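Q: I have 198 residues here and want to know how they pack in 3D. Can you give me a structure?
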Amino acid sequence: MTSSTGRPLPVFVITGQSGAGKGTLIERLLRSFPQLQLAVSATTRARRPGEIDGVHYYFISDEEFDRRLEAGEFVEHHVFPWGQRSGTLVSEIQRSADDGNACVLELETEGARNVAERESRAVTIFVTAPIEELERRLQERATESAGEIGERLRVARRQLEVADRFDYRVENDDLERASAELAGIVRRLLAPAGTMAP
């Protein structure tokens, strides 16, 4: 994708283990780099308390998801073991480029790899954390049942096996250090386009 001025922009694809803190790291990143824009994913899961449609996710029905999928409107999509689906609309990446911003995607590992195959300017970053820490974070979040937490931990172990297939790996065992490391990666990659943050 390019901006409306034709300047090529990276597409930052941030993935990793469930509960590794991707969302927190991305929030910090967006505050530090105003030229980044987060893509809003579409999902079939129920809205959680405090979530806003079109801000946190586009909450759509299974039927709407099927229609958009058949129309080729997703750059990637993922089916979770517990049944829900989520995906990134092609229009979300283009929206960032049209605004002159670099797009940030928060994805599951499979989706991240799919975007990397389809988008030449994709930069993939894998976020990990120790399994014990993942379990603690998932339990504190209290948004999943014990069975869902167990499934997420099983998936997290499997995701770690493919971590070396991504461009960068950031271990979130310490939030401040991990945040600084991620910011450093983004700063270096934005610099050639003349958009380095101060």
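Q: Anything worth noting?
A: The longest helix spans residues 175-190. DSSP finds seven helices and nine strands in the chain.
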